[in-house]
Amino acid sequence: MSQTQMMKGILDGCLLAIIRGKEVYGYEMAERLSEYGFGEVSEGTIYPLLMRMQREGLVSSIKKASTAGPKRKYYSLTDKGHEELEAFLERWKRLEKSVNEAIRQETKEGSEGSA
Amino acid sequence: MPELSKESRRFIDDLRLYLFSSGKNDQEIKEIAEELEAHLEEAERNGKPIEQVVGESPREYMEMISSEMKFDKKAWLKYVPLIIFGAISFSVIGQLMENMRLSYSYVFVGGSLAVSILFILLVFSVFKYTASRQVSRVKEFLLMMIPIFVNMVLFMALIFWDMYTELPGIELGVTASMIVGAILFVILIGISVWAKTAVLLVMLAAVHVPDLLLKMTSLGLEARLITGLLATYAMIGLYFFYTVKKMKKTEAVEG
């Protein structure tokens, strides 16, 4: 439960980062995520997240015709989305540092303790 | 546009039904269904199985999507009175055709309202259940019989209770009954225009025309009532399927 909660928060951040680059549609985002190693996450997971981010005003969307197949919905970041991404990056840096620090210290002490 | 696989097609249909039965907004349902359809189509072109998109449990995925969508009060304000008013008009027009005057016990009026609401809730629960669990068509049909059957039994109990006991109520003369009938008919047309659906009028005709024909047979009143009710509820069930089918068709044309 808390694990999926955390995962969602992380995915939110990654999606915001992916959308920042250029206007992008759902399938492309999913592909990009799996390239980055999120292959375990089923692709459809991004849509409920996008729905929430859109409701919260972090992203906006526009439908465009595509050469192959049906219309695609392209997403882009709003000003609020940019702010949220900055905040996420800040949170993530701190978290990453804390986790790395904890693991480094504890595994070191753990191995000394058992020795 | 290349065709979706049967499995993906079914998932999209089930998702629509699930969200519709959960009282979500039509436009929002259309948006997410289109987006997922496009995704599934592209995934299939690249040889990905549907599980890679919707995960191992379609039910959990539907719940995830549903939880991000608001409950659409306006849609319910549109459907619920339509169905209840429909039930009332069926009964009123039936009575007018039977003996040109209206007589209702309070028990019957209140009971009909309660039974109608229960029916709507049961139908939507069955829709949500079958849509999210990929049940077979046969099981879907059998499950759909539960609300229809429960409702029929309750309505019949109500009708017999009303017929064989003296209950307090209102009784109108022929003129007053006709005026009420006319007002009801005008409201009925008004509602149909407002809700942009002729379904109530179509159903009214569909139920009362056989009833008129049944009258010419040697069947007793009870048998006619039961046949009439059966037809009504079968048609309400059909109406929901028809709505979803139509939603799908409009999109196919637009897309």
Quickly list its features.
heterodimer; A: 115 residues; alpha+beta; Arc Repressor Mutant, subunit A; three-stranded antiparallel beta sheet; 3 strands; 66% helix; 12% strand; elongated; B: 255 residues; mainly alpha; two-stranded antiparallel sheet
Explain what this protein looks like in three dimensions.
The complex is a heterodimer of chains A (115) and B (255). Chain A has 115 residues and is of the alpha+beta class. Chain A has helices at residues 2-21, 26-35, 46-55, 79-114; strands at residues 24-25, 59-64, 72-77. Chain A has a 3-stranded antiparallel beta sheet with strand order 1-3-2. In chain A, β2 and β3 form a beta hairpin. In chain A, α1 (2-21) crosses α3 (46-55) and α1 (2-21) crosses α4. Chain A is elongated and about 60 Å long. The mean pLDDT of chain A is 87. By secondary structure, chain B is mainly α. Chain B is built from 10 helices and 2 strands. Chain B has a two-stranded antiparallel ribbon. In chain B, α1 packs antiparallel against α6, α5 (73-99) runs parallel beside α9 (199-215) and α6 runs antiparallel to α7 (137-164). The mean pLDDT of chain B is 82. The chains are: A alpha+beta (115), B mainly alpha (255). Chain A: Residues 15-86 form the Transcription regulator PadR N-terminal domain.
